User: Fold these one by one.
Assistant:
Number 1:
Amino acid sequence: MLPRIIHIQPLAPSKPDFGQPCNGCGVCCLHEPCPLGMLLSGKRRGACAALRWEASLAQYRCGAMAQPRDVLRTALPKGLGWLALLLLPVLRRLAGRWIAAGQGCDCSLEVSPGQPDTRSDRQSEP
Ligand code: SF4
Ligand code: SF4
């Protein structure tokens, strides 16, 4: 697969090696959504719409876990925002199953820094 450029916060931590503790670098979710992220984003490639940057922690967080109401309101079509309250418990259950929160990094992408004039980019190659 060809290398791809992903746009990432300059203060995000570097991606750890596969199997090391997840540090919220965001590379996996910026590269492509997980199954839950595909539902929430309405796409199979590119950055997940549910991903959130936590400036105070300088880490990315899964919005399905950290800000589920906000994520649902964004994902639901206009006029169906009221469904967010009903779907909240379902989202939490799904997120807990799909997200390896607190576990090792399960992303095998190789990451290299971007060019000097695009220092907020890191290239990823699966
Ligand atoms: S699973 Fe890995 S690539 Fe994804 S955010 Fe955690 S450390 Fe980064
Ligand atoms: S873990 Fe969360 S932010 Fe990452 S792709 Fe899945 S739904 Fe999106």
Number 2:
Amino acid sequence: DGLYIIQPKEEPIVVFCNMQDGGWTVIQHITVNSTVDFDRTWQDYKYGFGSVHENHWLGNEYMHQLTGSSVQYILGIKLVNLNAEVKWGQYEPFLIEGEESQYRIRVGLYKGNATDALTLDTEAYLHDNQKFTTKDRDNDNYFMNCAKLELNGIPGGGWWYDACAGANLNRRNVIYWQKDCNKQRPCKFAWMMIKPIEHHQPYPAKACPCQKVEL
Ligand SMILES: [Ca+2]
């Protein structure tokens, strides 16, 4: 585990890699009642905020640069409740489209022991295909701006809202993941992480530098 410099496009960026759980690049981390404010503008969510070894949002632009390449990615969700019980979920594939598409999210098939909160079977709560919404840019399907809706005085923050959502990991006081994390069952930590989909290699790839075969 630790900090790494990666270069998804021109600009090098610092990311936190979670190696113990299998080699993931962390794109979001929140601790309940974090001092990092997640009630931010479009521009803040675009390039990220917080500190990468603690609570942070990596940035929609970087999420797009990483997942929008020719390599397909998996989204991993890790949730820890107050009893230190860990829940996992993952979506394959996972993709964030570019700013011209308002950083629309695409999520594929789910597996894990957490609730499938991003594709919850409720008409108003689908995440797949939703654009990103912040307090200063309302792209959601609700008559108000979901990012501004408050719970105990804390707004929802930026997210891929529908009208509004069965999950939101960016509300600072209540980490929300449908049945797993909510007001009644509080969670302490959440992470969003990504990694490339591994294509099965039938033969060891690192035999080179290769000896010329004498026939
Ligand atoms: Ca709206």
